[in-house]
UniProtKB/TrEMBL annotation:
GO molecular function: exodeoxyribonuclease VII activity
Main location: cytoplasm
Protein name (record): Exodeoxyribonuclease 7 small subunit
Lineage: Bacteria, Bacillati, Actinomycetota, Actinomycetes, Kitasatosporales
Catalytic activity: Exonucleolytic cleavage in either 5'- to 3'- or 3'- to 5'-direction to yield nucleoside 5'-phosphates
Coiled coil stretches, renumbered: none
Its biological purpose: Bidirectionally degrades single-stranded DNA into large acid-insoluble oligonucleotides, which are then degraded further into small acid-soluble oligonucleotides.
Pfam families the record matches: Exonuc_VII_S
Name of encoding gene: xseB
Record's subunit section: Heterooligomer composed of large and small subunits.
Subcellular location: Cytoplasm
Family as reported in the entry's similarity comment: Belongs to the XseB family.
């Protein structure tokens, strides 16, 4: 479940934080508990990014459909 803070993150903010989480996980040296917390945060951030991208895809599809309808009407 996403927190209220996650809902206010821009795509770029979520992406940048996700990059940092992955970097920290790849670097190693964290305890198991810290690694699990980072992984869980990464999953939340990935969902935020996915929602933004899905929304962008829907807007693009709608714009393309509108354009196609206008072309058919001409």
């Amino acid at each position: 479940m996403s927190s209220k803070v996650d809902e206010t993150l821009s795509y770029e903010q979520a992406r940048d934080e996700l990059i940092e989480v992955v970097r920290r996980l790849e670097a190693g040296g964290s305890t198991l508990e810290e690694s699990l917390a980072l992984w869980e945060r990464g999953e939340e951030l990935a969902k935020v990014c996915r929602r933004w991208l899905e929304g962008a895809r829907e807007r693009l599809d709608a714009a393309l459909a509108e354009e196609a309808e206008e072309e058919e009407g001409d």
